[in-house]
Write a structure and sequence with these properties.
The chain is an alpha+beta fold. The chain contains three helices and five strands. Strand 1 (49-62) and strand 2 (65-73) form a beta hairpin.
Amino acid sequence: MRMQSGLWLVVIALLAACAGAPPFDTKNINTALTPNKVETQIDAVRGARVMWGGVILNSKNLETGTQLEILAYPLNDRQRPRLDREPLGRFIVEHRSYLETVDYAPGRELSVTGTISGTKEGKIDESKYIYPAVTSEQLHLWPKGGADEPQIHFGIGVMFHN
């Protein structure tokens, strides 16, 4: 009986290690929209639910919440940005509460679900840029270094010392 209980604990631990992607609410998500496509048709898509992700370029706390500038990339089946693909444009995430900008720092990967709220005018260096803006519903900050895939290692170690 004791052996069987121990086996169940190992199975549960392995299943926890293989946990899937974060549980995003993907109901009514418009997967055809990308930041590049939205720029030209903002009035037609305002209020649409999207799931976008990418790399944080800038984060700043405002009086009304936190604003994140994101360089968008296609998402993989776990909804993590695919940095090995071509970028899909830039967008702004408007989050209604405070986010720690040290955690949400440039270079971090982020996935977001939310609604398209309009556009924000900004600059990329000296060039004017119109960003689609998304009011966030769910955010997921991915672990540094691309370590979101389950990693299970089995083995026996032997060490010799002189």
